[in-house]
Amino acid sequence: MALSEFEIIDRFFTRGSASRDDVVIGVGDDAAQVRVPEGHDVLVDVSTAGGDDTADTDPASLGHRSLALALARLAARGGRPAWLTIALTRPLADERWLEAFSSAMTALADRHGVQLVGGDTTRGPARLTLHLHALARAGEILSPGGARVDDLIYVTGALGDGALAVLERSGELALPARDREPVLNRARLPEPPVREGLALRALASSAMVLAGGVAAALRAPLSDGGLGATIQVQRLPLSDSARRSFERAGGWSLALHSEEPCALAFTVAPRRRGELEQRFAELGLRCSRIGTVEQRPGLRLLLDDGSEYSGRSLG
Ligand code: ADP
Ligand code: MG
Q1: Does residue 28 line the site of ligand 1, with CB under 6 A?
Q2: What pLDDT, on the 0 to 100 scale, is given for residue 54?
Q3: Ligand 1 binding pocket includes 29 (Cβ within 6 Å)
Q4: Which of 3, 9, 122 gets mutated to test ligand 1 (max ligand atoms within 8 A of its CB)?
Q5: What's the pLDDT score for residue 3?
Q6: For residue 107, which of 61, 172, 176 has the smallest C-alpha distance?
Q7: Which residue among 31, 52, 164, 229 is least crowded, i.e. fewest CB within 10 A of its CB?
Q8: Number of the ligand 1 atom closest to the C-alpha atom of 116
Q9: 247 CB contacts (<8 Å, ≥6 apart)?
Q10: Does the structure show a pLDDT above 60 at 312?
Q11: Which of 159, 158, 93, 95 is nearest to 126 (CA)?
Q12: What is the pLDDT of residue 53?
């Protein structure tokens, strides 16, 4: 049965996400209207996904993951997520696809207080574009570029599952039975570090997502500022699954290069270390101190015995 654009919007995109007081006009009207609270700036993340196989065969993952990654990027800016728009182009109005996609996305939106306020639904080669908006007080906004010499470097959560999922999917590594499903599920439906980002407001000197892994995430913003860092490789927090497949999956380079788009790296001035660690502990959030920002450019990777980690050389 062919659904009209109106029926698709009504059935899949009108309900489910949060209902916010600051939305004056949401889905259904020509243009959405939202109210920005006094003293706040709006942060906007735009992302597009094309019609690759994953997108077509796993609509729940596409819906959840694309919003989760956007939530993570705005968390790295210290934003409180607020409003979402979706531009969705599909070759066919496939009800089961739309149901799985929209319910995964709206459930995640609802959990983080995000309201879907509008979009566009059209027919054509598969494509998805999200605009996610977050609110932040101007003085509390984070960026990747604010690190100073002697700042302490932290990461949130645990690392390694991103790389394990890639290795498992490509057939390069067979994970133990107990890890296979959990690792693949966390890659399909990652949890964005929204609470972590909010906890870092007005406290971290810089923050960034680990979309390309810890080493890559730190290198660019530090070198832009003419700075470098020492990373104590053995302090990198490993997921339980990564610990169990540690040797077979490449040792510490697993933690250094695993793509973790829903984890953050951040820096904090040393005098604020206590405040930071207490805040995370009180909120039941995990963070690990992994190194220090230094004057000398480049990333130095050290093992606990002081020797250099010789996994992969880094600029
Ligand atoms: P218009 O004629 O103004 O382009 P549409 O008929 O495209 O409006 O859409 C009607 C309403 O539904 C608008 O408020 C629009 O923002 C919203 N909308 C359309 N597609 C989506 C979608 N996929 N998700 C959420 N809202 C949507
Ligand atoms: Mg339209």
Answers
A1: yes
A2: 60
A3: yes
A4: 9
A5: 82
A6: 61
A7: 31
A8: 25
A9: none
A10: no
A11: 93
A12: 56
* Model confidence pLDDT, tens digit, residues 104-154: 999 999 999 999 999 999 999 999 999 999 999 989 999 999 999 999 999
Q: Indicate if ligand 1 lies below 6 Å from the C-beta of 27.
A: yes
**72 φ, ψ (degrees, to nearest 5):** -65, -45
Alpha carbons 307 and 176: distance in angstroms, whole number: 32
Measure the CA–CA gap between 122 and 90, rounded to whole angstroms. Answer: 7
Ligand 1 near 9 CB (within 6 A): yes
Q: Is the pLDDT of residue 313 over 80?
A: no
- Percentage of the chain surpassing pLDDT 70? 97
Q: Which ligand is nearest to the CA of 27?
A: 1
Q: Could you give the angle at the alpha carbon of 252 between the alpha carbons of 264 and 254, nearest 5°?
A: 60
* Residue 88 near ligand 1, beta carbon < 6 Å: yes
| 226's tokens | 């003419």
Q: Which atom of ligand 1 is nearest to the CA of 88?
A: 23
- String of b and e for 20-41 (b: at least 16 CB within 10 Å)? eeebeebbeeeebebeeeeebe
Q: What is the pLDDT of residues 241-286, one digit of tens each?
A: 999 999 999 999 999 999 999 999 999 999 999 999 999 999 999 9
Phi-psi region of 278 (alpha: psi -120 to 50; beta: other; left: phi over 0): alpha
Q: In what order do the strands lie in the sheet with 228-232?
A: 206-210, 260-268, 152-156, 287-294, 228-232, 298-302
In this structure, are residues 126 and 97 in contact, taking their beta carbons and an 8 Å threshold? no
Query: What whole-number distance in Å separates Cα of residue 179 and Cα of residue 242?
Result: 9
Q: How many Cα atoms sit within 13 Å of 232 on the Cβ side?
A: 14
What is the rounded CA–CA span in Å between residue 236 and residue 289? 8
